[in-house]
Amino acid sequence: MLIRSPRCHEPKPSEITPESLFRRRREFLRVSAASLLLAPAALHAGRLEPGREIVEEKNSAFSTSEEQTPFDKASRYNNFYEFGTHKSDPERLSGDFQPLPWSVQVDGACMKPGTHDLEDIIQPHKLEERIYRLRCVEAWSMVIPWVGIPLGSVLSRFEPTGNAKYVAFTTVYRPEQMPGQKRSVINWPYVEGLRMDEAMHPLTLLTVGMYGRVLPNQNGAPLRVVVPWKYGFKSIKSIVRIQFTERRPPTSWNLKAPREYGFYSNVNPDVDHPRWSQRKERRIGDFFKRETLQFNGYAEQVAQLYTGMDLREQF
Amino acid sequence: MRRGGAAKALLFCVCLVPLGVLFWRGFTDRFSANPVEDITHFTGDWTLYFLLITLTVTPLRRLFRWNLVLFRRMLGLYAFFYACLHFSTYLVFDHFFDLRDIVDDIVKRPYITVGFTAFVLLIPLAATSNNAMIRRLKKHWRTLHRLVYLIAVLGILHYLWLVKADVRTPVMLGIVLGVLLALRSPYLKLPRRGSRAA
To answer: What is the pTM of this model?
Structure first.
């Protein structure tokens, strides 16, 4: 057996810049310069107290200028089966949930595994507002101003190794605080995953807030992911574990109905859900439906992640 | 005055209460963020409830000798009424009369296929729900109206096949329907139509 020991002049696999990032070099430089200027303002603890105004940078180039869904609707119409299967359940039944203190276990193929307090995870980063479209697999959509950090910049700190091909996420399991978990509608805990390049993509947001403030419990407090070009269920909520894996991790809806929910679950008007069409969607607040866009309108940014893939097969 | 005239008038109003509730929710801003979905679900639910209520008339007579046959026609017509509202919501707000989309749905989506079939089958039943048609169709009328059993089964399937994971409600309604159909079984030795206990 040949065992290669890395030479010092060779870059560690974790240091290799993903191609998609490399191609965004200019943008990266611009954003980095801005962060250097603004970073000191962000260096204080206790940023995630409830109700606190937490946005540190607005006007992201990734934000849409479409009309935002009112907070009232985005916080009262949720699919978060941990609190119940009706859309109104999460808002009604999440009052007992304790989002703080919170820690996240990081493990798998990385150089710096460990359990980290939420504040420590976000501490070095600036909290950005990103106004994204959210497209649910049920054919409705919203426009939500999230607050967070590009997931990639957080993941890099854990120094994923070359074996890290995927990132797996796990939602907290607390049936005493999450009444929906008392019934096994889904096999708890909820799990999700992304391919490494999807997780590192600058659009993918590790999210701690929305509408300028800390996330309400029903929207996935205190820590969730938002992947705007995928159906909403990929954007896993209340994350307690991040694991770097070599093999594709299991994902909850795929386990529940493999024919209906694929691993990728990219928004795609041409690939119907077996039971309903994905060609159109109802934007919350509208009466009539509108056309659904390829990759939820983010094709320009993400289509290159899937070149050469048959999106009908790999749905 | 016709038989049961006052009671029928009362029932007529009672059956409109769900529609009233729907309007009240609309005017007092009690819908969720997705009112079209609320209206679709609400009118769909009430179609099924009215179908099941209509199917309760015969078992009640056989079990307890409560004769509510006088009201059965109105209950059945109300099932059709709520089904029309349900279908119109779909037609207007989901597809805005886009025939291509609708045909696509009916052909490709099993839950729409069965739901639409159930709706179409309700039409001849509603159209023949009057004394003149009963006289004209004679014994065929009863055969035709046995379609309601199929319609109810399709209606429950329509519900069952559209939910993502939580099948509690459609399963519960399915059990109710199962019981109502089982109570019609000739093996149960319940008093039949027209028979008298000695």
So the answer is: 0.81
